[in-house]
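Next up, sample data.

:::
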Amino acid sequence: MGTLQDVFTAVQEKTPESLGPSAWYIATAAALVSLGKPEEIGALFVHLTSSMPSEHKSSKEHVSKRLRDVLMKEWTLVGIPLVVAAVASLAQAEEGLELDGRLSEKW
């Protein structure tokens, strides 16, 4: 394949639209962590938000919260250490964006 960005693009293109616009990155995030690559969650976040204009802070917060929700659910499947590494990677990617780092209201 190529770079991680190429993988993200390929997964996005191959995910059926009927699953919704966020299905591809939720599945990708879960796969990255469960395959032992939690440090790549930050790269996924950057890929998702790089095309968003800087004034779309609420869109970036939405993506961040969706990823955090996935990680909260995934710790039961893969264990806390991998999820902590993924959260750290996400936090590093969010650095300087002044996003609301809270989880969604359901947590």
